[in-house]
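Dear support,

Our group has been running a series of protein-ligand predictions, and this particular one with calcium ion is the one our PI (initials K.S.) wants archived with full inputs and outputs. We had some confusion internally about which version of the output was final, so please treat the block below as the authoritative record. The input we submitted was:
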Amino acid sequence: MSVNIYDDINRLEGTLRQTTEFTALQHAVDAVKSDEEALALFKSFRDLQMKLQDKQMKGEEISGEELEYFQKTAQLAQGNEKIEKMLHAEMALSGLIEEVNRVLMKPVQAIYEGI
Amino acid sequence: MSVNIYDDINRLEGTLRQTTEFTALQHAVDAVKSDEEALALFKSFRDLQMKLQDKQMKGEEISGEELEYFQKTAQLAQGNEKIEKMLHAEMALSGLIEEVNRVLMKPVQAIYEGI
Ligand SMILES: [Ca+2]
Ligand SMILES: [Ca+2]
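Confirmed final output from the archive:
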C-alpha cells in the first residue's frame, strides 16, 4: 500500500452515506419495515428467492410449481408501492457504487492496453 | 446526489494509482509486454479463455479436445515466471478494490438490518 488509501476509502464511505441515493434507500426501507403487509410480502419474496438461488447453486431441480409460486410472489411484491419504491432506490444506489467501480477500473484496464 | 461524491471518487482513484499494488501490476504487465515468449503465451491463454467463455455463454458445447488444449495452455502460461507474477499482482490489486466495495457495502447492508 504505502500511500494511505484507507483515508480516501473511509472519506468516500462517509460521503456515500450522505447522498440522496443512500438516504432515499434508508427512507424506503423504513417505509417497508413499518408497513406490516409490505414487510410480509417482501420477506416472502426474499426468502423464496434465496431458497431458489440456493437450489440452483447446488444443482438441485426447481419444479414448475415452485417457479410459478415464486413468480406470483415476485409479482405481488413488485406490485406493492412501498416495495417498488425500495427496489428503485436499491437500483439507484447500486448505480452509484457501480460508478465507483468503473472509475477505479479505468486505470487498471489502461495498464493492459496494447496487449 | 447533492453532496459531491465525485470529488471523493476521483481522489480515491488518484490514490489507487499510487499504491504499491497498482504500480506492481504496471511493472508486471510491462515485463510481460517486453518478453516475446511471455507475451505470446499470455495472449494465447487469454484468447482461448475468451473463446471458451463466449461458447459457454451461448450455451455451445465445448469439446474434450478444446478443454484439454485450454488446460495445457493455461498450465504453460502459469508456469511462466513473468505471467505468474502478473497474475499475482492482479489478485493483490483486485483485493484492494474488493476492500473498497466491502467498506461501501457495509452501511448499505446495515439499512436492511432487522428485516
Ligand atoms: Ca405500482
Ligand atoms: Ca514459477
